[in-house]
Design goal:
Elements: E1 2-11, E2 14-23, E3 34-40, E4 45-48, H1 50-58, E5 62-63, H2 65-73
Parallel strand pairs: 1-5
Antiparallel strand pairs: 1-2, 2-3, 3-4
Amino acid sequence: MVKLRLKRCGKKQRAVYRIVAIDVRSRREGRDLRKVGFYDPIKNQTYLNIPVILNFLEQGAQPTGTVQDISKKAGFFMDL
């Protein structure tokens, strides 16, 4: 099963996150299938590759709660 979840990047005390499609059995920093977005909580910036995310959702991927909240703030999950 594939999930859309956050992968931590950046420095200590300066975390940024990539939104990735990853196998459920992989750890947080494990090998991802594809990078589908970016989230910076300090600068409050979000980038979502919407066509790729829709493709993974159609194939049965499940977003985690945090990724779903970030997507709602960006206005993406309003229609779904």
